[in-house]
């Protein structure tokens, strides 16, 4: 994500950007676009959608250039806008049943979000989600996801068949995913962690 040519001096470029300098804007864009694009693809799981969000992000940067503080982290500023745009997308998904159904089938984006959910700092969030599950589903999910037990081990612990264990975990997994899609509060917390670690 480095720049070429002249030395990259962010405060100077930001000061020029505030004045409407398009070359400074392009230097900043070139410096950050790949890192942002990779982050967006990772959380959105769609190249075209990531391109659209990236374009909208830099349109907002240009339109709000006069409010940018050259002394503050421009990367943090960009990622904050990116997070807002991604959460807006998931808010739309929560209202759009066909989009929601598509996301429920897509495992790629969820596996990355789930990585954040499994982190210690998000334990309270995961606990709150799991409290909404029926007891058997919750127990199977906790044994599998948190205690890392195999389906066979869970079958023996819970005294139920392996196929029933599989069913409980499947329904719990779907429920947690649906809750995340429908809740911008949960998603924002998880996406902030995911995007800022890249």
Q: Mind explaining what this structure looks like?
A:
- This protein has about 200 residues and is an all-alpha fold.
- The chain folds into two domains: about 10-95, Orthogonal Bundle (Rna Polymerase Sigma Factor, Chain: A), CATH 1.10.1740; about 95-198, Arc Repressor Mutant, subunit A (Orthogonal Bundle), CATH 1.10.10.
- The protein is about 75% helix and about 0% strand.
- The protein has eleven helices and no strands.
- Helix 2 crosses helix 4 (about 75-95), helix 8 (about 135-145) crosses helix 10 and helix 9 packs across helix 10 (about 160-180).
- The longest helix is centred in the first third of the chain and has 23 residues, at about 20-45.
- The N and C termini lie close together (about 10 Å).
Give the SSE map.
Layout: H1 10-18, H2 22-44, H3 47-63, H4 74-95, H5 97-105, H6 107-117, H7 123-130, H8 135-146, H9 151-158, H10 162-182, H11 184-196
Distance between the termini: 12 Å
Helix and strand pattern: HHHHHHHHHHH
Alpha-beta content class: mainly alpha
The biggest beta sheet reads: none
Q: What is the residue-averaged pLDDT?
A: 81
Rg, Cα atoms, Å: 21 Å
Instruction: Tell me what portion of residues adopts beta-strand conformation.
Output: under 5%
CATH superfamily membership of the largest domain:
Winged helix-like DNA-binding domain superfamily/Winged helix DNA-binding domain
Family: Belongs to the sigma-70 factor family. ECF subfamily.
Protein name: Sigma-70 family RNA polymerase sigma factor
Pfam families: Sigma70_r2 (PF04542), Sigma70_r4_2 (PF08281)
Domain RNA polymerase sigma factor 70 region 4 type: 125-170
């Amino acid at each position: 994500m480095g720049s070429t040519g002249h030395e990259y001096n962010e405060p100077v470029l930001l000061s020029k950007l505030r004045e409407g300098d398009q070359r400074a804007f392009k230097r900043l864009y070139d410096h950050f676009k790949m890192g942002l694009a990779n982050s967006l693809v990772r959380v959105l799981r769609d190249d075209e959608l990531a391109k659209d969000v990236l374009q909208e992000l830099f349109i907002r940067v240009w339109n709000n250039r006069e409010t940018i503080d050259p002394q503050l982290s421009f990367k943090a500023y960009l990622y904050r806008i990116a997070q807002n745009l991604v959460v807006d997308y998931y808010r739309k998904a929560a209202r759009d049943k066909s989009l929601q159904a598509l996301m429920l089938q897509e495992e790629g984006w969820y596996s990355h979000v789930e990585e954040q959910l499994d982190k210690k700092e998000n334990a309270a969030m995961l606990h709150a989600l799991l409290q909404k599950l029926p007891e058997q589903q919750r127990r199977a999910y906790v044994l599998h996801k948190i205690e890392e037990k195999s389906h066979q081990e869970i079958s023996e612990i819970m005294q139920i068949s392996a196929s029933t264990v599989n069913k409980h975990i499947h329904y719990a997994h779907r429920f947690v995913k649906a809750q995340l899609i429908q809740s911008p509060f949960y998603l924002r917390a998880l996406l902030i962690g995911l995007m800022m670690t890249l």
